[in-house]
C-alpha cells in the first residue's frame, strides 16, 4: 500500500473486534503509526482526525462509512486506500476507484463460539465457571482441574494453549472480565492503569486477585487528586480528578494548543479526566469519569460509557447528551411517567 515504516500513519475506525486488534498490532509489526479513532465518534470528528494526520490508509468496519469517506474525498486529498471489514460490492469498488481510492476487503476472520449452541454445553460451562470461582476466592490459580481438561482447554487453545501471564492496560477493566480470564486460563492477570496522555500510572500487584482499585503507582510517577466541585468531588475527602506527573507524560495534543493548555497544567501535571480515590490500603481506585472524551476542538464531546450501555440495551436506537442538572430533571420526569403508566420494570 506504499506505506513508509516510521513515518506513515494508518487510521483505524472500527468497533472493538478481532479485525480492529489485527489492524492495530499489524501497524506496529511493520513500524507504522497507528491512529485509532473510536467507532462512537461521529463522522465529523472522524473526518477532522483524518485531515489532521493526513493518513493515506483508513481501516473501517462498514460499507456506510466507506460511502461517507468517498463523499468527502475532496477534503481528504491524502486518502488513497480504504480497508473495509464488511463485504464490499463491485459497484462500490468501482466507485472508489473512480475517486482515486483503492478499496480493499478485509479478509474475514470469523471465530464462532460453540458454547451457546446447546443448553447442555451452556449448563456445563456455567458449572465449570462456578467451580473455578470457588478456587479463585481461595487464591488458587490452576489449569489442572477436571473443568480445565474438558471445558476450558479448547478456549485456551484459541490463544495457542500457552497463555501463562497477562495484563490489561489503559482504562480499568471490568471485574467480570478479569475473573473470566483468571478462571479460564488459570493464570495471573495484572491490571495496568494509564492513558495515551500520561502513559502508565499504576499497576496491581502479582496475585492480587481481589484488589480494590488499580494498584500502586509506578516508580517515578507522581499522582494527586484535584477538586471537581461540579461533581461534588473534593481532594480533602480523598476524591477528585486524577492528576499525574512523570517523565512519561505527553507534552500536548498534535496541532491543538487550546486543548493542550486545558490538559497540561503548570509544573508538568497532566489531568486524566478520571475521577479517583485512595483506598484504605493506599491503592488508587477509579470511581468515575469527569469527561468520557473524544478530545477535538470544535467537535462534540462523547460520553462513551453511557452511550454504549444505552445502545447495547436495545431499548433505544439513538442517544443524546445532556448537562448533569438537566439530565437529573429529565430522568426524574421519565421515571415518574413510567410509574404512572405501570411500565417500570424491576430491573
From TrEMBL:
Organism placement in taxonomy: Eukaryota, Metazoa, Ecdysozoa, Arthropoda, Chelicerata
Gene3D superfamilies linked: N-terminal domain of ligase-like (3.40.50.12780)
Official protein name in the record: long-chain-fatty-acid--CoA ligase
Keyword Coiled coil assigned: no
GO cellular component: endoplasmic reticulum; membrane
A molecular function GO annotation: long-chain fatty acid-CoA ligase activity
Keywords, ordered alphabetically: Fatty acid metabolism, Ligase, Lipid metabolism
EC top class named in words: ligase
EC number: 6.2.1.3
KW Ligase (keyword) present: yes
Ranges where the AMP-dependent synthetase/ligase domain occurs: 145-254
Amino acid at each position: 500500500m506504499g506505506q513508509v515504516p516510521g513515518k506513515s500513519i494508518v487510521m483505524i475506525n472500527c468497533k472493538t473486534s478481532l479485525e480492529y486488534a489485527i489492524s492495530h498490532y499489524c501497524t506496529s509489526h511493520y513500524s507504522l503509526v497507528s491512529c485509532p479513532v473510536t467507532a462512537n465518534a461521529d463522522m465529523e470528528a472522524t473526518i477532522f482526525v483524518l485531515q489532521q494526520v493526513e493518513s493515506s490508509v483508513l481501516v473501517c468496519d462498514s460499507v456506510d462509512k466507506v460511502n461517507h469517506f468517498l463523499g468527502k474525498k475532496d477534503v481528504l486529498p491524502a486518502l488513497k486506500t480504504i480497508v473495509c471489514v464488511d463485504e464490499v460490492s463491485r459497484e462500490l469498488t468501482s466507485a472508489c476507484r473512480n475517486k482515486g481510492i483503492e478499496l480493499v476487503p478485509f479478509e474475514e476472520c470469523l471465530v464462532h463460539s460453540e458454547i451457546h449452541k446447546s443448553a447442555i454445553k451452556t449448563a456445563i460451562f456455567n458449572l465449570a465457571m462456578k467451580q473455578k470461582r470457588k478456587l479463585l476466592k481461595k487464591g488458587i490459580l490452576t489449569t489442572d482441574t477436571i473443568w480445565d481438561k474438558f471445558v476450558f482447554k479448547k478456549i485456551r487453545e484459541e490463544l495457542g494453549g500457552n497463555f501463562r501471564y497477562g495484563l490489561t492496560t489503559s482504562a480499568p477493566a471490568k471485574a467480570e472480565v478479569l475473573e473470566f480470564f483468571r478462571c479460564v486460563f488459570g493464570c495471573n492477570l495484572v491490571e495496568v492503569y494509564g492513558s495515551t496522555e500520561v502513559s502508565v500510572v499504576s499497576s496491581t500487584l502479582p496475585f492480587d486477585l481481589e484488589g480494590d482499585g488499580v494498584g500502586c503507582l509506578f516508580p517515578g510517577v507522581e499522582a494527586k487528586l484535584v477538586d471537581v466541585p461540579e461533581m461534588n468531588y473534593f481532594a480533602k475527602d480523598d476524591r477528585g480528578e486524577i492528576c499525574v506527573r512523570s517523565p512519561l507524560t505527553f507534552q500536548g495534543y498534535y496541532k491543538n494548543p487550546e486543548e493542550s493548555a486545558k490538559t497540561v497544567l503548570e509544573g508538568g501535571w497532566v489531568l486524566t479526566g478520571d475521577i479517583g480515590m485512595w483506598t484504605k490500603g493506599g491503592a488508587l481506585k477509579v470511581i468515575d469519569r469527569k469527561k468520557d472524551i473524544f478530545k477535538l476542538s470544535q467537535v462534540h464531546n462523547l460520553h462513551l460509557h453511557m452511550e454504549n450501555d444505552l445502545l447495547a440495551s436495545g431499548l433505544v436506537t439513538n442517544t443524546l447528551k445532556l448537562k448533569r442538572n438537566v439530565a437529573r430533571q429529565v430522568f426524574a420526569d421519565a421515571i415518574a411517567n413510567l410509574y404512572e403508566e405501570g411500565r417500570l420494570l424491576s430491573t
